[in-house]
Amino acid sequence: MARMVLLGVGTAVPDGDRGHTHLVWDGPGGPFLVDAGGSTYQRLLKAGLDPQKLQGIVLTHSHADHIGGLPLLLFSLSLVGRTEPVPVYGLEATLALSRKVVESFELEEHVAPVRWQPIDAGNELALDGGWVVHTALNDHSRPCLALRFAHHTSGAALAYSGDTSPCQAVVDLARGAGVLVHEATVAGPWAGHTTPYEAGAVAAQAGVRHLVLVHFSPQWTMPEAQALEAVRGAGFAGRVDIGQEGQVIPVAGDTSDA
Predict the structure, then answer these.
(1) Contact 4, 49 (CB under 8 A)
(2) How many domains is the chain built from?
(3) What torsion, rounded to 10 degrees, do the Cα atoms 250, 253, 255, 257 define?
């Protein structure tokens, strides 16, 4: 069984118990990181994963709370002896800025080798065990990818919105997935981000069974109980969680348990 682990679930302004939102796919072939917020190496360890076995990283976009941890992750990997290049995928503009950020630290020989892999929205990334990462461009203030991790034979799937306003591209990408991990940053309409109510509407339109809210803060967004009520008010009747640090979301290899 594959699973997604929430390494951080907070907004760009962290709470005491919520760091910058980033996730890790734990499936055949080793961990596959989605963005790199702060203290990523430590958070992987806390999740019971070996950072040295990272099979790759996909960066959804170039805002600091999603790429700021990349230099320190590569630094730590170098210090523990990683010599195999780390594939880092993302839109061309995202990788260009990320590369500059890494180079600005002047880590010299103390940085794990990287294989920068530009991709376009709509491209697919093949993972081990029959899993594929589908990509789509969402609606954010910088070019940003939404992702769908899907098993090519069973149909099991989990979708992640990335940072975005509610948009049709995410509805289409998430359609029929067992789980949708969706950002819910703001209390009211805000260009490039989503409210809990809007996330609930997206989940209902996509027909998912389980909605997990991330990029969320009880301080900066709204209290958790109010967010859950807003999701229900949007017409979503499935399971809904406020994402928690270290939460594990199973994604089984058959559609009944996805």
Answers:
(1) no
(2) 1
(3) -40
DSSP 104: H
| Structural domain that includes position 162 | 2-251
In a 13 Å sphere around the CA of 15, the CA atoms on its Cβ side amount to: 20
Say how far apart CA 61 and CA 257 lie, in whole Å: 30
213 dihedral zone (left: phi>0; alpha: psi -120 to 50; beta): beta
Return d(Cα 132, Cα 25) in angstroms, integer: 11
The whole-angstrom separation of Cα 72 and Cα 112 is 10
119: tokens are: 């991709």
Question: Counting beta carbons within 10 angstroms of the beta carbon of residue 252, is it exposed (0 to 12), middle (13 to 18) or buried (19 or more)?
Answer: middle
**43 strand-pairing partners:** none
Return mean pLDDT, the chain.
96
Nearest Cα to 117, choosing from 82, 89, 147, 84?
A: 89
How many whole angstroms separate alpha carbon 161 and alpha carbon 244? Answer: 17
pTM over 0.90: yes
The Cα–Cα gap between 256 and 155 comes to 10
What CATH number corresponds to the domain at position 132?
A: 3.60.15.10
- Inform me whether the pLDDT recorded for 257 exceeds 60: no
Tens-digit pLDDT profile for residues 94-141: 999 999 999 999 998 999 999 999 999 999 999 999 999 999 999 999
